[in-house]
Write a structure and sequence with these properties.
Radius of gyration: 21 Å
Order of helices and strands: HHEEEEEHEEEEE
Number of strands: 10
CATH architecture: Beta Barrel
Pfam family, one: OMP_b-brl_2
CATH topology: Porin
CATH class: Mainly Beta
Protein name: PorT protein
Number of domains: 1
Structural class: mainly beta
Helix content: 10-25%
Oligomer: single chain
Length: about 230
Amino acid sequence: MKRYLIYLILICGMQGHAQLKIFGKDPIIHLENFDKQRVHWGYFLGFNSYGFKMDYIDDPVTDIVVKQTTGFNVGLVGNLRIMEHLDLRFEPGLYYTQRDLTYPDIERQSDALRQAKSTYIHFPLLLKFSAKRTGNIKPYLVGGFSRTLNLSSNASSLDDNYSGTFRMKKWTTNYEVGFGIDLYLEYFKFSPSIRGVFGLNDELIRDNNPDSPWTGNINSMKTRAILINFTFH
């Protein structure tokens, strides 16, 4: 989490340095009426780090190790102005990620590792609460709910972990919270943001054998993720 916060601060610092006249003591005000639009559109690029929160039926000797990797995000933004300082955001996007699960109690190396490669279509509906604009900077908080379709879930596969296939449910529901900064540049608005995603439902499809060493002791497996997006309006 600290690493992603540092990335976000560095990006903001670089933008501020490059646009010194925009963010200085007496800034040149840009896009003064931009936020008065009823509806506006944009797109985002970014990266992510997905993991799992594991709950067990019985306390294991050793927890399953979930290794997170850095994935890539791309998508669109639709913004509806509800009132001053409050907007409704719809941000459908495509998210690529991978999680490596290591089972320390399984001796054979090929069986001890399972890769959960996921291609998500993410549908968040969010409320954006903005602070008062100061010059060309406006911080904001964002929160809401989302539905996610996992195109790589293997949900319809008849094979399970005994054949090397890790299965997950296709659809999940999440809640999301985060914050960001709107930076008003000469020709567009740039908004870096960081957001946490918290899965609400169990995503694991159990193996056919109820005593499976991969899924038998897992009570629930829920998504936990950090998203960093760079939005252009």
